[in-house]
């Protein structure tokens, strides 16, 4: 077998929360052949398999009694280019942000609002990653995945992925699909999305009134660096809770006591509330219990100050969930994947 399987491997370097747990078995797959070899190796020994990418959306609460298979396949290729639209395919193990930069460097727009999101290309469809008004579903063409139940390689188009807010068919069937590579439709004719949050304002502060996709990416990177903790310095998994979408009547009820409530009306008549705003109003921003805490600048981000366990972070998350439910009648759903 070309891939190496190691035993009792610390996963601390492989999850951005920096949680110290061990994988009973650990291997990296650089190709489809290595993926197949490793799955067969695990099946022959009746080991469960947990597939990971960059570990930036995981909350690990115990040692993983399985083969942890980290996707490390690399490669970016242009599949079609008619001078206006370009179809680009990237292997699952490609780190996301450098891939976004590669597309921008090659004059392709579409992924700029998704700059500086950690993780890998292969994990991006899992929760239909989104930021600053764009989700990957907006530029998605298709992906190739291995059905771990049958061993078949399957093609998914946009519809088959069932993308929704931080959700997909892959997230709804945990452990079934192993994403091998993903294709995006990008544009040589720039159509920018600037109307979300402080993007336009940041550009105008920089004196840029006719921005390129590269300018938008740079502005978003600068906003994110100011607001979000860098996992290399402070362990975290980004937003810990999804923004809850609630009936308009509940939003109006909360607004009676909290007139400054932040809410965004949705097409279906419901209202998306900013979970970070609710958590901040409840007084959790900057809270710390041992090494588990709520980030000082962004209440939606839980942080590990060093030695917090996954259980401690999960316990803190559950306290916040109970408090928000009692105060506002809103159920917060965790975003990271719990193992
Ligand atoms: P992992 O954490 O390794 O895995 C996540 C899930 O996907 C797991 O269930 C895993 O089993 C599964 N998985 C991984 N790879 C594959 C594969 N190839 N095939 C099948 N299953 C797989 N997310 C956003 O949506 N928007 C943001 O703006 C954003 N900002 C963030 C900022 C910070 C600072 C951090 C730490 C996180 C942020 N995230 C954001 C969350 C996270 O970066 C994304 O969800 C990212 O796509 C996770 O990629 P990963 O490779 O690290 O996945
Ligand atoms: P923000 O700009 O302070 O906004 C707070 C929340 O309000 C966001 O979560 C966003 O929801 C929502 N919002 C803001 N403007 C909106 C608009 N014009 N229309 C609809 N909804 C709007 O948020 P932030 O924390 O700094 O994050 C900025 C962006 O990066 C957001 O899109 C956020 O989702 C993304 N992000 C995601 C993660 C993650 O781990 N998932 C981590 C960091 C940042 P949405 O979240 O639905 O966009």
From TrEMBL:
Q: GO molecular function, one example?
A: UDP-N-acetylmuramate dehydrogenase activity
Please tell me where this protein is predominantly located. Answer: cytoplasm
Q: What does this protein do?
A: Cell wall formation.
Q: Which family does it belong to?
A: Belongs to the MurB family.
So, what pathway does this thing act in?
A: Cell wall biogenesis; peptidoglycan biosynthesis
Per the UniProt entry, the Enzyme Commission number(s) are 1.3.1.98
Q: What is the lineage of its organism?
A: Bacteria, Pseudomonadati, Pseudomonadota, Gammaproteobacteria, Pseudomonadales
Q: Kindly provide the name given to this protein in its UniProt entry.
A: UDP-N-acetylenolpyruvoylglucosamine reductase
- Recorded source organism is Pseudomonas fontis
This chain is encoded by the gene named murB
Q: Which domain of life is it from?
A: Bacteria
Per UniProt, the enzyme's principal EC class comes to oxidoreductase
Subcellular location field: Cytoplasm
| Keywords, in A-Z order | Cell cycle, Cell division, Cell shape, Cell wall biogenesis/degradation, Cytoplasm, FAD, Flavoprotein, NADP, Oxidoreductase, Peptidoglycan synthesis
Which PANTHER family does its entry note?
A: UDP-N-ACETYLENOLPYRUVOYLGLUCOSAMINE REDUCTASE
Instruction: Domain (FAD-binding PCMH-type): give its ranges.
Output: 19-189
Q: Which cofactor does it need?
A: FAD
Which HAMAP family does the UniProt entry name for this protein? MurB
Q: Does the keyword Cell cycle apply?
A: yes
Q: InterPro entries of this UniProt entry? A: FAD-bd_PCMH, FAD-bd_PCMH-like_sf, FAD-bd_PCMH_sub1, FAD-bd_PCMH_sub2, MurB, MurB_C, MurB_C_sf, Oxid_FAD_bind_N
What catalytic activity does the UniProt entry give for this protein?
A: UDP-N-acetyl-alpha-D-muramate + NADP(+) = UDP-N-acetyl-3-O-(1-carboxyvinyl)-alpha-D-glucosamine + NADPH + H(+)
Active-site residues?
A: 166, 239 (proton donor), 335
Stored Pfam families: FAD_binding_4, MurB_C
The reply on keyword Cell cycle is yes
């Amino acid at each position: 077998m070309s891939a190496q399987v190691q035993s009792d491997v610390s996963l601390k370097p492989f999850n951005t929360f920096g949680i110290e747990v061990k994988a009973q078995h650990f291997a990296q797959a650089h190709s489809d052949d290595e993926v197949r070899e490793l799955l067969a190796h695990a099946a022959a020994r009746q080991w469960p398999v947990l597939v990971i990418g960059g570990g930036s959306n995981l909350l690990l609460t115990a040692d993983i009694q399985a083969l942890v298979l980290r996707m490390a396949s690399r490669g970016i290729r242009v599949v079609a280019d008619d001078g206006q639209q370009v179809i680009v395919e990237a292997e699952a193990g490609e780190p996301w942000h450098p891939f976004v930069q590669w597309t921008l460097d090659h004059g392709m727009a579409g992924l700029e609002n998704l700059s500086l999101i950690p993780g890998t290309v292969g994990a991006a469809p899992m929760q239909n990653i989104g930021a600053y008004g764009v989700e990957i579903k907006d530029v998605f063409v298709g992906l190739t995945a291995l059905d771990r139940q049958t061993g078949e390689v399957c093609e998914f188009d946009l519809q088959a992925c069932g993308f929704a807010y931080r959700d997909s068919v892959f997230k709804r069937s945990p452990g079934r699909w192993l994403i091998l590579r993903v294709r995006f439709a990008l544009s040589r004719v720039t159509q920018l999305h600037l109307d979300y949050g402080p993007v336009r304002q940041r550009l105008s502060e920089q004196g840029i009134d006719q921005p390129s996709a590269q300018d938008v990416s740079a502005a978003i990177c600068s906003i994110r660096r100011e607001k979000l903790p860098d996992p290399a310095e402070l362990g975290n998994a980004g937003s810990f809770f999804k923004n809850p979408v609630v009936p308009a009547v509940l939003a109006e009820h909360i607004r009676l006591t909290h007139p400054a409530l932040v809410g965004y009306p949705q097409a279906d008549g419901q209202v998306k509330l900013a979970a970070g705003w609710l958590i901040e109003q409840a007084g959790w921003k900057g809270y710390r219990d041992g090494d588990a805490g709520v980030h000082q600048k962004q209440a939606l981000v839980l942080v590990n100050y060093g030695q917090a366990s996954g259980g401690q972070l999960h316990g803190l998350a559950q306290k916040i969930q109970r408090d928000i439910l009692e105060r506002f009648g809103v159920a917060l759903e965790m975003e990271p994947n719990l193992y």
